[in-house]
Amino acid sequence: MVQRGYHRPRPPSPHAIKLNLILIFAFFFLVFIFYTRQWHLLDDQRKQQPFSDEHSQTDRMPDAELWDAPPSYGLRSCVKPTSRYKAATGWDHYMTVRSNGGLNQMRTGIADMVAVARIMNATLVIPQLDKRSFWHDSSTFSDIFDELHFIETLQEDVKIVKELPQELANVPRARKHFTSWASTSYYEDMTQLWKEYQVIHVAKSDSRLANNDLPLDIQRLRCRALYHALRFSPPIESFGKVLSMHDADTAEAGGAA
Ligand SMILES: *[C@@H]1O[C@H](CO)[C@@H](O)[C@H](O)[C@H]1NC(C)=O
């Protein structure tokens, strides 16, 4: 049997303490060097990424570049329908809409209504713009937006007409305040109304469709409506161009001075 030796711990010599301290110090020094290097690498990476120092970029940006289209940073628009998407056929159910709110709210509301008309298999009548709540303006849809472009851009998605057909002008309409942030299934249920009515009048267009959990093709339709179909009318577009050119000229003149 081997007897285990019993060693009394010897008090460490001052020399050993010094050596230990040096080792500990060297260890921390290495850790420090390692982290500093990592930090610099990260910092370099961040500088290469586009969103990081936008401000300093703007500061250095020459005026000419400022008026160019912004870089896309690799982001792509998601307006194309999926392969499952079917072109719209015409429906003899009609949906009339009164948009409410300011211009921006009306734009998103109109895009929602395009999607709702698609879900409900309805033909959409060009929406009426708000003239009462705080948009104190008598402009019609075609004063603000390029109506023909709107109809044509969305022709594969929803049939859109300028006016309700004459023979339907006086038929009783279902007048609906659709629930805010409703889902697709809500509108699918609402198609029950077609059993009794040929025309549904939507009294408000704002926030009538949920932002999440909608089928991909419905979200993309919204994007198409908002970013492709809803273009300002030619007079507003050209006025906008004049304004931005004026600003660009002023900026250039200012830059040269
Ligand atoms: C809309 O029409 C299509 C094609 O006829 C049909 O498959 C779909 O169920 C209809 N949608 C609703 C909500 O009724």
From TrEMBL:
Protein name: O-fucosyltransferase family protein
Gene Ontology molecular function: glycosyltransferase activity
Keyword entries, A-Z: Carbohydrate metabolism, Fucose metabolism, Glycoprotein, Glycosyltransferase, Membrane, Signal-anchor, Transferase, Transmembrane, Transmembrane helix
Biological processes, Gene Ontology terms: fucose metabolic process
Species whose genome carries this gene: Rosa chinensis
Similarity comment: family membership: Belongs to the glycosyltransferase GT106 family.
Lineage: Eukaryota, Viridiplantae, Streptophyta, Embryophyta, Tracheophyta
GO cellular component: cytoplasm; membrane; nucleus
TM spans (from-to): 16-36
Pathway assigned to this chain's UniProt record: Glycan metabolism
Localization terms from the record: Membrane
